[in-house]
């Protein structure tokens, strides 16, 4: 192939530039497509990430496949993925099909916003989820962690089984609803709360629509679609009420303007500052987006870590010893400073994310003609950027199939080429780095430290093997773990 060049417009400067490349998408390797369907019939939409990872092993760091007559380019080289993520939102955007589905369910926040709307809402959300707000929210997280511990202890002392996966999701829902909406849902101890049912139902419907081959709900409204609309309406009504009550609370407690205790308080304070014109609809949309984005990701990151620990008892023992040393006489984290002392816990979480990332692929679309990895991408090229492409590469992670937290612990900070943190993207990258990552990491540390300080993990011999299931995120089919009180 000979070098080729073409003119293109850069989105940042809107000036023409000469693009040089040696190949086009048609030159890329990939799985053989069938007539009409392309590679669609080879994709299990519940496990599409597994197929993509297998193709990465077969075809290398850049290849293409076809859905019907449309090309999709997969990129897995971590340096290229990092570059693509840094080029958002100017160079690349999210695929609008998923954004449209979210908006149909009234999930209209920073996650799906682009351009100037994204810049406005990013500012709002970052005010609501920064480190200071999470630290102010820490006492609430302490109480919720204790509530989870007592629930498990009470069940075990009564000889009752513990549904770990269910309780992790309830805990994460309680945390994110309290932060984003200022409301103690207590999903952990109840199943009958209407808001909880609506949130769970809406998230389930979102996953189903994301995996649907044909958007039937736009043509034929089934009972489940009407139920989803009703749930979305009730959630919006509830959040509107929370906003009104929060404004009253701030009015009666002016100190909250300097020290907001949750995301909703911080966003309301930001919205009322001079120069800001955030609407109530933006407050509502981002509160709902935070809940739906924060519940499943954090709970299932913890679930995957527990699954990895129960399969690796030596690592679990090291983590328990660290929890004992850091927490001392305490049964759960009560001091903020303890969070920074959990070195092995952080390493275990990093290793679990490497093996079982809840967001293994980013779907992107090019805004203009561009060149990626010496390949010409026309405007509107669909790209799957692997967040974990390096994770099973022996050159980057020797013994890549093994759970080895020690690979994340260093006496001295490694140089850029040897730093594993630069090779994976569990929270995205660039300016669209996940705004909730600090909250998620805090919750993961608190729950896992409490778990290992108080309980032993045993595999459930009667449970089915755990499968990876792609809904909106990649989740485990279960957590086949039995808890036992530590002596």
TrEMBL record:
Classification via InterPro entries: Cyt_P450 (IPR001128), Cyt_P450_CS (IPR017972), Cyt_P450_E_grp-I (IPR002401), Cyt_P450_sf (IPR036396)
Gene3D superfamilies per the UniProt record, alphabetical: Cytochrome P450 (1.10.630.10)
Keyword Protease among record annotations: no
Cofactor (UniProt): heme
Signal peptide (from-to): none
A Pfam family annotated for this UniProt entry: p450
Name of this protein: Cytochrome P450
An example Gene Ontology molecular-function term: heme binding
Family statement drawn from the similarity comment of this UniProt entry: Belongs to the cytochrome P450 family.
Keywords assigned by UniProt, alphabetized: Heme, Iron, Metal-binding, Monooxygenase, Oxidoreductase
Positions annotated to bind heme: 434
């Amino acid at each position: 192939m000979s070098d080729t060049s073409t003119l293109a417009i850069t989105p940042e400067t809107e000036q023409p530039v000469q693009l040089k490349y040696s190949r086009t998408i048609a030159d890329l390797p990939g799985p053989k497509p069938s007539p009409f369907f392309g590679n669609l019939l080879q994709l299990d939409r519940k496990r599409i990430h597994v197929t993509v990872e297998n193709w990465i092993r077969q075809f290398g760091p850049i290849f293409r496949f076809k859905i019907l007559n449309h090309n999709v380019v997969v990129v897995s080289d971590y340096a290229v993925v990092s570059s693509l993520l840094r080029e958002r939102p100017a160079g690349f955007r999210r695929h609008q099909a998923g954004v449209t589905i979210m908006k149909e369910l009234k999930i209209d926040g920073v996650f799906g916003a682009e351009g100037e709307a994204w810049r406005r809402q990013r500012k709002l959300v970052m005010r609501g989820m920064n480190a200071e707000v999470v630290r102010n929210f820490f006492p609430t997280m302490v109480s919720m962690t204790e509530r989870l511990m007592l629930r498990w202890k009470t069940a075990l002392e009564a000889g009752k089984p513990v549904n770990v996966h269910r309780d992790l999701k309830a805990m994460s829902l309680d945390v994110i609803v309290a932060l984003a909406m200022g409301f103690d849902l207590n999903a952990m101890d109840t199943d009958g709360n209407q808001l909880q049912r609506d949130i769970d139902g809406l998230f389930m419907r979102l996953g189903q629509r994301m995996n649907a081959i044909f958007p039937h709900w736009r043509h034929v409204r089934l009972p489940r679609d009407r139920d989803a609309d009703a749930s979305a309406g009730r959630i919006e009504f509830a959040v509107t009420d929370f906003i009104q009550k929060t404004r009253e609370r701030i009015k009666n407690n002016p100190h909250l303007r300097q020290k907001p205790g949750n995301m909703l308080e911080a966003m309301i304070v930001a919205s009322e500052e001079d120069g800001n014109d955030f609407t109530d609809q933006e407050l509502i949309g981002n509160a709902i987006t935070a809940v739906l984005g924060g519940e499943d990701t954090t709970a299932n990151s913890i679930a995957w870590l527990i699954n990895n620990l129960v399969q690796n008892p030596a690592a679990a023992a090291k983590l328990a010893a660290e929890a004992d040393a850091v927490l001392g006489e305490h049964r759960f984290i009560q001091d903020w400073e303890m969070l920074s002392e959990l070195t092995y816990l952080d390493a275990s979480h990093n290793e679990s994310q490497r093996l079982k990332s809840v967001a293994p692929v980013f779907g992107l679309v090019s805004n203009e003609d561009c060149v990626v990895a010496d390949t010409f991408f026309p405007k509107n090229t669909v790209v799957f950027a692997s967040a974990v492409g390096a994770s099973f590469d022996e050159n980057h992670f020797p013994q890549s199939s093994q759970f080895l937290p020690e690979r994340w612990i260093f006496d001295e900070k490694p140089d850029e080429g040897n730093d594993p943190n630069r090779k994976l993207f569990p929270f995205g990258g660039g300016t669209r780095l996940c705004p909730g990552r600090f909250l998620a990491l805090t919750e993961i540390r608190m729950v896992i430290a409490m778990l290992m300080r108080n309980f032993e993990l045993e595999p459930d011999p009667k449970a089915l093997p755990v499968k990876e299931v792609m809904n909106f995120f990649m989740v485990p089919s279960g957590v086949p773990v039995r808890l036992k009180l530590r002596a």
